[in-house]
């Protein structure tokens, strides 16, 4: 019988890898991860959990997780909710809901609440922006270059609202201050400004690190990889941070820290090169 190595809830994995998708594991333009495939196989063979941590929705992630045969926990909508396969850590987690074979832990806000707040503020203050809730699927396609199926999935948001900001930078600061009164915040991603609850990708790393530590009896080493501003909290929370170079902007600047890699290559090629270096040093 061919049993694939997977995370064993009793044993400390050599590393835990947490990664952003768009512009990091996936090419910013084509969404391809082809250059990363040998490294993905290497992680699996070594029993290293690969935790996808993305601005995408749970529905959007489903096909990719199947394709990657990924059975590890994952994080959606910029840290808004964590999904952990049932029995992954060998015991049920408290304060989580059951959802299609996973335990769901919500750290952010529900989208319906977010829309109520930002639509009222737009009416009152005359801000200029277009959110997914205002767009036809054809407009989502135009802004993302996604296929129609994938664009429909992208609109199935549960915990955040992506906006195209069409007003001044100064007005964006005013908007940010007004939504903060409602416990909401802004995150700038590769394409959109996201309105989300009081959560970020880094809080999810901390939350999962505690679960792994409980389960394995020792604290695992986390490597995180990201390319954009919405990855900074996750990168700062990791033991080793990999800043994947972007064709869109200068590399991120992190807190002063001992272990940071800035890739030479962009997107999945940079992702693969950095992890190859880390795996070569870790797996002897
Ligand atoms: Mg990204």
What does this protein structure show overall?
The protein has 284 residues and is of the alpha/beta class. The protein folds into 2 domains: 16-107 and 200-282, Rossmann fold, CATH 3.40.50.1000; 111-196, Putative mannosyl-3-phosphoglycerate phosphatase, domain 2 (Threonyl-tRNA Synthetase, Chain A, domain 2). It is built from 9 helices and 13 strands. It has helices at 37-45, 58-67, 111-125, 137-144, 148-154, 169-180, 201-216, 232-237, 267-282, and strands at 16-19, 50-53, 74-76, 81-85, 97-99, 102-106, 129-131, 160-165, 185-188, 193-196, 222-226, 240-245, 260-266. The strands form 2 sheets. The protein has a 9-stranded mixed beta sheet with strand order 5-6-4-3-2-1-11-12-13. Strand 11 (222-226), helix 8 and strand 12 form a beta-alpha-beta unit. The longest helix has 16 residues, at 201-216. The chain is globular, with a radius of gyration of 19 Å. It starts with 15 loop residues before the first strand and ends with a helix. Bound molecules: magnesium ion. Residues 20, 22-24, 190, 227-228 line the site of magnesium ion (MG). Magnesium ion binds at residues 20, 22-24, 190, 227-228.
């Amino acid at each position: 019988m061919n049993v694939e190595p997977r995370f064993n809830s009793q044993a400390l994995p050599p590393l835990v890898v947490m990664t952003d998708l768009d512009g990091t594991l996936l090419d910013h333009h084509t969404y391809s991860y082809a250059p990363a495939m040998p490294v993905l196989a290497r992680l699996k063979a070594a029993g290293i959990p690969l935790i996808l941590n993305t601005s995408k929705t749970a529905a959007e992630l489903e096909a990719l997780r199947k394709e990657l045969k990924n059975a590890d926990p994952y994080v959606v909508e910029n840290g808004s909710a964590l999904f952990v396969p049932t029995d992954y850590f060998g015991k049920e987690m408290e304060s989580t809901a059951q959802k299609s074979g996973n335990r769901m832990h919500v750290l952010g806000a529900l989208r319906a609440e977010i829309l109520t707040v930002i639509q009222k503020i737009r009416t009152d203050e005359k801000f200029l922006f277009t959110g997914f809730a205002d767009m036809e699927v054809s407009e989502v396609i135009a802004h993302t270059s996604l296929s129609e199926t994938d664009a429909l999935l992208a609109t199935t948001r549960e915990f955040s609202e992506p906006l195209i900001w069409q007003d001044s930078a100064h007005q964006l600061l005013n908007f940010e201050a007004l939504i903060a009164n409602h416990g909401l915040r802004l995150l700038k991603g590769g394409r959109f400004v996201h309105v989300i609850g009081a959560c970020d990708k880094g809080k999810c790393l901390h939350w999962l690190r505690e679960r792994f530590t409980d389960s394995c009896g020792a604290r695992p080493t986390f490597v995180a990889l990201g390319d954009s501003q919405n990855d900074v909290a996750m990168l700062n929370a990791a033991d080793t941070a990999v800043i994947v170079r972007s064709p869109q902007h200068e590399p991120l600047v992190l807190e002063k820290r001992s272990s940071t890699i800035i890739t030479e290559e962009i997107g999945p090629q940079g992702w693969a090169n950095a992890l190859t270096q880390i795996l070569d040093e870790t797996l002897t």
